[in-house]
Amino acid sequence: MRVSVIGCGYLGAVHAAAMASIGHEVVGIDVDQRKIDALSKGEAPFFEPGLPEILTEGTQSGRLSFTTDISAAAGAAVHFIGVGTPQQAGGYAADLTYVNAAIDSLLPHLREGDIVAGKSTVPVGTAAELATRVSETGATLVWNPEFLREGWAVQDTIDPDRLVAGVPEGPDGERAADILREVYAPAVAKGTPFIVTDYATAELVKVSANAFLATKISFINAMAEIAEATGADVTELADAIGYDARIGRKFLGSGIGFGGGCLPKDIRAFAARAEELGRGESIKFLHEMDAINMRRRDRAVELVVNGLGGSVFGKKVAVLGAAFKPHSDDVRDSPALDVAVRLNGLGANVVVTDPQAIDNARRLHPQLTYVADRDETLRDADAVVLVTEWDEYRREMAPEHVSTLTHGRVVVDGRNGLDAAAWRAAGWSYYGMGRP
Ligand code: UGA
């Protein structure tokens, strides 16, 4: 099938390459010439495991191309919209500028019978509005939300947990759903659940899934706060409640909480949309989830300050991690980087390392010092702070080895990823998040 993908960021670039890898003929379109140049050479403009391989394979086979010229979308049977919907400046609602611009630029190139498949995360009600404009060209709009996780994006796109298609009522909707089934034929053939529903439900599936995940993380972090007041250990608590299959251990990872380009802005945009709908009360708890989440960053800073005897001023603090989570170079709303910036603001000499995210972090926060080598980062540090649980820091960093490099023996485990007993046995003052 001929497919176009408009927007080649974390979502669109992976989607374009994944669609080519399952056999479609794909053109990826973006306004950013630098991104297009890199992608055309088979280079991923960001770190995503498995992406360079399928990009190279796709571009070399001739099935995958990239351009800034929107007219290249003409002739494709399905047009995916994968542009960003960031948080509005000065507000919590989603900024739909890029979605509207993508649709406007695509409209003149649509033909009767084309499918426009929206993948961007949008406030509920957006698809219905866009559908009117799209249908004037004889094309049909489908809302097909994306559930990929950064770091596992290729696998999640090719082999998702489920596929959702929000379609209009009637034969056009049925036909559109059939075409999407064809697009995702390998996953459908494997028996992947394919849910055909209305626009509003499809849009809500996406935001409610992210709201649920954010709530799960904030729930365990709220328990961490209670654990701190009682001497309990939140990691053991999470293991114990996680054995209950109804609860499950996934997304009960306590620590400095969630960040990234999705969960924080999505729960805020959802709350803003609910207010507009007169249903603010129904998801008011999301404000609380947001607040718990942000408090955990304060707590990590407090642990470092207390660990260093009440002040970090003039102390060297080695910060391990800058990405919002491991297996990613994404620093958008990264809790890790936020902790580093706050410590820097308190007068610490903060040195940050990360296996992938240093360039992005430096662009955002040039005031911090960045060092690529982990051991160089640790050298002469008064305190060590783990904020992104890369294996390099969590599994492959023996406390005895770190002791040979640092000046102090204070370690703050912002992701509860270290073996507290091993660090204490090596002479360290270990501080976890919600652990005694
Ligand atoms: C999230 C969702 O998991 C995806 O399903 C969704 O498609 C995506 O947003 C999106 O809307 O595009 P992602 O942002 O890649 O994916 O990252 P997650 O793996 O969900 O992690 C989000 C944040 O939560 C990270 O900062 C991570 O460190 C934190 N987290 C995660 C925890 O603090 N504890 C956990 O147990 C799990």
Explained architecture:
- The chain is α/β, with parallel strands linked by helices and 436 residues long.
- It has 2 domains: 2-197, NAD(P)-binding Rossmann-like Domain (Rossmann fold, 3-Layer(aba) Sandwich); 233-436, NAD(P)-binding Rossmann-like Domain (Rossmann fold, 3-Layer(aba) Sandwich).
- 44% of the residues lie in helices and 13% in strands.
- It has 18 helices and 14 strands.
- The strands form 3 sheets. It has a 6-stranded parallel sheet, sandwiched between helices. A 6-stranded parallel sheet has the order 11-10-9-12-13-14.
- α1 links the parallel β1 (2-6) and β2.
- α12 crosses α13.
- The protein is globular and about 70 Å long.
- The termini are far apart.
- The mean pLDDT is 97.
- The structure holds uridine-5'-diphosphate-glucuronic acid.
- Uridine-5'-diphosphate-glucuronic acid binds at residues 121, 146-150, 210, 213, 217, 251-253, 255, 257-260, 262-263, 266, 324-325.
Which homologous superfamily in CATH is the superfamily of the largest domain? NAD(P)-binding Rossmann-like Domain
CATH architecture of the largest domain: 3-Layer(aba) Sandwich
Cα distance spanning the termini? 57 Å
* Distinct compounds present: uridine-5'-diphosphate-glucuronic acid
Helix content: 40-55%
| Widest sheet: strand ordering | 3-2-1-4-5-6
Uncertain spans:
none
**Rg calculated over all Cα atoms:** 23 Å
**Arithmetic mean of pLDDT:** 97
Beta strands, count: 14
What would you call the shape?
globular
- Strand % is 5-15%
